[in-house]
Amino acid sequence: MASQKYSAFNPVKPYFDLVRGALGDLVDGEHFFDSASDDIVYEVLYEFPGWPRIIKGKVDLMESFHGYGKHIVIHAADHLTKHVTDDSQVIVIEYEVHGTILLTGVHYNNRFCSIIKIEKRRIVHWRDYMDSLAAWNALT
To answer: Is residue 102 pLDDT above 70, yes or no?
Structure first.
């Protein structure tokens, strides 16, 4: 069911699958967006052309990822390492994504670290770090 509902996000599906798998039974919902609170704050601590530093709300987050998938196709997401706090309300995940920049055909490989805060079985805050040089090299 989630595969049809979120088919517009298929270009980045491996990312969503990795994240949803990492969160496991700590959150409700079949898909990443089902697991996000309506008022999620998604914060990136790097500069990425066309991507805002702070996204507030699930609707805007979905719109941003829809746009992202028009520029990059993610083929795989792997090398997951997960750290969970004792109260299971904060999770840190480290992972890699591999894809292609659609405009140039250049291969894209990057490493990320995401800090995720959970309340009432929903993602309420996401803070993301990545290898900015890898992104820069892929885009230029």
So the answer is: yes
**Cα dihedral 47, 51, 56, 60 in deg (nearest 10):** -170
Report the C-alpha gap between 138 and 15 in whole angstroms: 18
Task: Kindly indicate whether the domain formed by 2-139 is annotated with CATH number 3.10.450.50.
Answer: yes
Length of the chain: 140
Cα distances from 134 to residues 18, 32, 88, in angstroms, run 20, 25, 31
Q: What is the pLDDT of residues 46-77, one digit of tens each?
A: 776 667 889 999 999 998 888 777 788 999 99
Q: Which helix (H) or strand (E) holds 129?
A: strand 122-130
Instruction: Classify the phi-psi angles of 57: left when phi > 0, otherwise alpha if psi is within -120 to 50, otherwise beta.
Output: left
